[in-house]
């Protein structure tokens, strides 16, 4: 009977140990901290907004609202081109954060107050031509241009000059097919050009 008693005591001790083990907290969880304190050690999930700026910036680089890096950029406007007329020759700065326009753009840097240019006018101009790609001066001088049947090197004189008034300084951008496209040997034959023309006479 003594042996049986010892066995029963040992069994009871084993059961008690099992109950205590079940009630004891896991070694992976601290037992000396409140639930609020334990929560502070829980890693916070990564916020989606943290990665949004880089994604948005990448998108802006492709779209740019018309003023982003070349590769997905919108087209430049006439207002994006800076023209300084204080010196002996106009100084033209072509933007590099937008693409060359595919249509004719015009802007009067200085307004005129004389006769207006029509598609049939003959205009006298002092002009400077700048290549879009490298921004260098390709040609400059004075010319009399019959817009009704232009015989000069530039195809788009009529499109660029229409509406300008005598005395005005007009800047206009011509896509390649209206620039030097007919001159296969010209280095700007496949390039857009920027023309700054001071209208000295209209007839």
Describe what you observe in this structure:
This protein has 203 residues and is of the alpha+beta class. It folds into two domains: 38 residues; 128 residues, Chitinase A, domain 3. It is 23% helix and 24% strand. It contains four helices and seven strands; from the N terminus they run H-H-H-E-E-E-E-E-H-E-E. It has a five-stranded antiparallel beta sheet with strand order 3-6-7-4-5. A hairpin with a 5-residue loop joins strand 4 and strand 5. The protein is globular and about 95 Å long. The protein starts with a helix and ends with a strand. The N terminus is likely disordered.
Secondary structure: elements and pairs:
Layout lengths: L1 H22 L11 H5 L8 H15 L19 E3 L6 E3 L11 E6 L11 E10 L5 E10 L10 H5 L7 E6 L18 E10 L1
Antiparallel strand pairs: 1-2, 3-6, 4-5, 4-7, 6-7
Please tag this protein with its features.
single chain; 203 residues; alpha+beta; Chitinase A, domain 3; 2 domains; five-stranded antiparallel β-sheet; 4 helices; 7 strands; 24% strand; disordered N terminus
Strand residue percentage: 15-25%
Shape: globular
- How many structurally independent domains? 2
Distance between the termini: 137 Å
The structural class is: alpha+beta
- What's the arrangement of strands in the largest beta sheet? 3-6-7-4-5
Quote the CATH topology of the largest domain. Answer: Chitinase A, domain 3
**Which segments are poorly predicted (pLDDT under 50) over 5 or more consecutive residues?**
1-29, 42-72
Number of strands: 7
Mean pLDDT: 74
CATH architecture grouping of the largest domain: Roll
Largest sheet: 5 strands, antiparallel
Give me the oligomer status. single chain
Supply the number of helical segments: 4
Nearest-angstrom radius of gyration?
39 Å
Q: Supply the CATH class of the largest domain.
A: Alpha Beta
Order of helices and strands: HHHEEEEEHEE
